[in-house]
Predict the 3D structure of the following.
Amino acid sequence: MTVTLTPVLSATWGSDKSWSLDTYTEAGGYAPLKKALGMAPGDLVQAVKDSGLRGRGGAGFPTGMKWGFLPPDDGGPRYLVVNADESEPGTCKDIPTMMSAPHALIEGVIITSFAIGCNHAFIYLRGEVVHVYRRLLQAVREAYEAGHLGKNIHGSGFDLDVTVHAGAGAYICGEETALLDSLEGRRGQPRLKPPFPAVAGLYARPTVVNNVESVASVPAIVDKGVEWFTAMGTERSKGMGLFSLSGHVTRPGQYEAPLGITLRELLELAGGIREGHELKFWTPGGSSTPIFTQDHLDTPLDYESVGAAGSMLGTRALQLFDETTCVVRAVTRWTEFYKHESCGKCTPCREGTYWLTQILKRIEAGRGTQADIQQLLDTCDSIAGRSFCALGDGATSSIISSVTLFREEYEAHVEQGGCPFDHAASALFEYSDTPATEEAHA
Amino acid sequence: MTATADKPAAAVVDTVTLTIDGTEVSVPKGTLIIRAAEQVGIEIPRFCDHPALKPAGACRQCLVDVASPGPDGNLRAFPKPQASCTMTVTEGMVVNTQHTSEEADRAQKGVMELLLINHPLDCPVCDKGGECPLQNQAMSHGRPESRFVDVKRVFEKPLALSSEILLDRERCVLCQRCTRFSKEIAGDAFIDLQNRGAQQQIGTFDEDVLDFDGYRPVGAATVDEAGKAFSSYYSGNTVQICPVGALTSAAYRFRSRPFDLVSSPSISEHDSSGSAIRIDHRRGKILRRLADNDPVVNEDWISDKDRFAFAWQNLSDRLTRPMVRKDGDLVEVSWPEALAAAAAGIKAATSGEGDDARGAAVLTGGRVTLEDAYAFQKFARVVLGTNDVDSRARAASDEEQAFLGSQVAGTGLGVTFGELEKAPAVLLVGFEAEDEGGVVFLRLRKSLGRQRVATVAPFLTRGAEKLGATLVPAAPGREAAALADLPADVRDALAQPGAVVVLGERVAEAPGAFAAALEVASSTGARLAWIPRRAGERGAVEAGALPGLLPGGRTATLKGPRDAVAKAWGVDALPAAKGRDTAGILAAAAEGAIGALVVGGVSASDLTGDVAAALEGAGFVVSLEVRRSEIAEAADVVLPVAPPSEKSGTFVNWEGRLRSFATAIRTDAMSDHRVLDLLAREWGVELGTGTVEAVNAELAALGAASDAERPAAPKAKAARNPRAKKGTAVLATWHQLVDEGALQDGEPYLAGTGRVAVARMSAATAAALGDAVSVEVSTEAGAIELPLVVTDMVDGVVWVPVKSPGSWVARDLRVAAGAVVSVKGAA
């Protein structure tokens, strides 16, 4: 089977000044908006429901159904909040989208807002990506000037304002309720649910929180129709998606392809694992998803198949590691990330990631014991399914899966009193082992 | 939730039936699983959960297994354990706690292990050791030994959140009870979570704690006039609800072990709420006081004054032996000698006839119990033969007495805490809930957003702002005019069923205000509640310790009620002459018109009258006191009496609820009523006030006055309209909750949390002083100089606190609110 890419969001990324309104419009942009404004909002919601579009932020909840959860219009405001706080290690799809084709997002925001009856939409952007922030602000300005935003958009009587908000650099603010608290100017920590955002979200009003890629996919669905969209993908995972390949791969980058593609197929497109090496392990959906090995090269990358194989499709962030990589080392780095990003609200995640990091660093440095390996699993057991939000669960995924798949490698660290790998061999750049860096953040 | 219903709810409550550990239980809809489990005696371990606070779900200690019926009616188990403190019950739910579910037990043990990895093992030196939920639950649900061998997180310790509240961050389990209390209950969000992950910690607005290089909160964090990090009147509650030893109070820190303490339930002597407290003492010494849960009064909370101000009674000036003045000096004598000397002195001073005839008078104050007040007035009327008895050691008026006699005395339980909370609208007159009401403030704040609050005052205080109150501006003395001309929306709000008009003790300073308030109540249907400041005030009204009132609200100047009381007391007649109030007694004594004064529970510095002249003018002074007060120092006979913790008795709180308390610490100190009973015997009179039971029996037998026996309600009277000329202003003043009152002596940590004394003026009034940074407020008697704070308030008025550091109004200015005082700016 010949594999082909299906560039939709990424279609214009190669164009000259792809981020500008002109480039986007020349490629047919904002035509779907005109079409949408001529439709009944209810029909738009139905179309997205029919398309089977599922949330591209990781959880895969049907987007149209989420819109449908909003209570009937009571005359008060309702909000669309775009989750653009892309922070998961390995995940790199929303930021290139906003960088290269910000108008795809903005057009999606306008159509979505029209569909759900929102007159003020927010884009909550990860604060560190200042260049993307500037692109978004510029795009919003252009959209206002072109009459795509503001009062009475193209004579439809529909008003919409868009606010781009830069976060302050907290992974937890990608959790939708923490994002809402942060957007309201509070400390970003997850809220108790219920009430769910659809009922009481931003400023306690009905709110839809959608991922960038989900929202940016809406114009194409409106333009090309539900059938076009459902023709791609698998039975229950419809459409296309951005697959971000990184690590030991010949041509890393974003590959937009139908859901259900396999890593083997993607690797064909990406030129394979780096010359002279072979795949050892990989994440199907970012660092929060259990790792896969060569055994999963042919697992269709759709929600169901990946789930059935014991992991999650997540954000389709495929981090690829070849045989030179120490799994203990990789897992330790990820765990340090979770420890640093734990918001601190609940005990399991706050204390558990603190503990796990210390155990892992000990094992990595060759100061661990066999009991420590069991302790890792026991501590993961005290976190997974116990934490307030999914961040805690995510922190344990790579540990549990790597101990299951590569237990002997953990044991080797213990037995040899150090790491059996040459770290320079796995590096893609000039590298020499330096004394273990002290934690950047206490 | 804490139940606060005073009366059984008549409405049918929707219930839900579920099964917990195999036991079926029906609970009201919306109940949390953890509360439902309590109903059947199943305790699920918890830290962040507190019945009076909103659910947080932060600690995850209370995880249980839950299954509930799906749409098809089949039971479906949740895939992972659920926090029982955040999940509400549903019909047919099946809950398995740690007792019946291995999964729940494993989850709880796991969380407990995680909670302990960073928790120091300093239980042997921790104040909480022995009464610590973490310690207890670690023993019952934890592993015998920790598997954590790595490095624990440490912090510099302790962090002083205020002079009173100290935080040991490494002990903190980040349950957020303290921050939630401060936000939700007290409205003083001065502490919050900072940083994240394992470094998350509770902190104040302090750049060192924020640890953000060069970053500091924008704007003035010191808008709070105290300029202190955690200046909340309710901060001590956070120490009590802390489930570990992270929050401690400076006063109690390292003083005791909980298992060495004897706990005695009691009632706070600090305000008219009658809050339930627990006194913890060891070998006769009070170590600390805690809030006791009383659902109908103070719920779970008390003010910091209730909690921390108890050192006053055991200071070095405590009186333990009677004293008699001999050759100019007070010398300790035996009780029989002191009583004989007191009686002889009073008899001699009042023995004159004709032009030399001089009577005796009794002054008492806000600290005394119902029984004491009853004994004082009975002693005055039966032994001394006078109606010159007054318990109002503060500004008072005949109008107030008419109001108290006609509306308050003997009326039993009136507006309750619960009704105040549920009132759709509340109008505050002469009453600052936070400063003068203690837990009343918390009850009102509980209804924030559901209750319309308006306050008749010269400015909107921060306390009133926290209640969401709107201001009905009135210069002191002009409250009656403001009440007569209430904004239409306030009046409409008060017309809703259940609305309440709260009258503070300062209404007595506003001519015509009682009558105007009665008019508001009758025209809108709102109920009236008199909330005095001090604990003994309502009891004194009930006991008749006012010149014009006999027990139960009977008029002292009417023959009928007088004869009825005389009959009950077994005496021929009661004095008929109109009695004088505190100011009148002091003035008369100063003029030499009173031969003997019996004084108990009065601080000279609270009175605007010339106390020194009165003590000088009176021929003979007997003082009943706990400590060597100024009055005791000037007395001829000093009779020591017991502080509240060493006696039993009753405070009648503002609701009219009897708040009886038993002796916490047994000593040989006697109550005022017992001492007066002994003293009366020197006249051959059986006063019958020897015991609390005897007094209560008499009070019960007397009962309340009939309407005919009561004084008439106060008549409308013109409000005062003092005009402030150039260089003068009308004085506004009231007590701050934490100030230099005598019952807060000896507690420097508490004093450190008090607000800084300032003088407040409107911009226009202050402008007349030029570029002043401080203002001197003066009368002929003296002056007070305080930093000036320009406040959005009524023009021509200057506000200073009554008795805060550097601002003792009664002693230094000898005037009360409403007086015209001189004001002068200082650079």
Observations:
- Chain B touches chain A through 36 residues (CB under 8 Å).
- The two ends of chain B are 53 Å apart (CA to CA).
- The first strand of chain B starts at residue 15 and ends at 20.
- The CA atoms of residues 323 and 333 of chain B lie 5 Å apart.
